[in-house]
Amino acid sequence: MSLEIPPVVGARRVRFWARLAALALAVTAWTLGGDWALTGAVLGALAAEVNLSLLVRALERASQWQGRSLKGTLARFYLIFAVTALLCVLVVRCQWGHPLAFLAGLLCPVPGLVLALLSFAVSPPRGPGHGH
Known about the structure:
132 residues; mainly alpha; 4 helices
């Protein structure tokens, strides 16, 4: 029996757990480092959330790619990367928040992905096409 996870359900769970990780990080950053650390953590988590949202939106259109050039899609990916990189540089150079807390915020999707995978192991998707 293979576990096939619909992309929308998978993305939803990853985003849920990433947001929960970001909330836990924000509380921890504020407790340990005050307002500056909280600002860094929130800015990093927001940057990661916006980045993921844009990438998921681009990937949702994957069915439209068949038979077409990928130049436009690749250009969008590069633009998303460039904007995220620029935001990272601005936050660190302008000292809008603690740089380590900002980095931790950017990495919130990693525990989100791990927790989502664990949640699928504990509670697999149910419904049509899943044998339940």
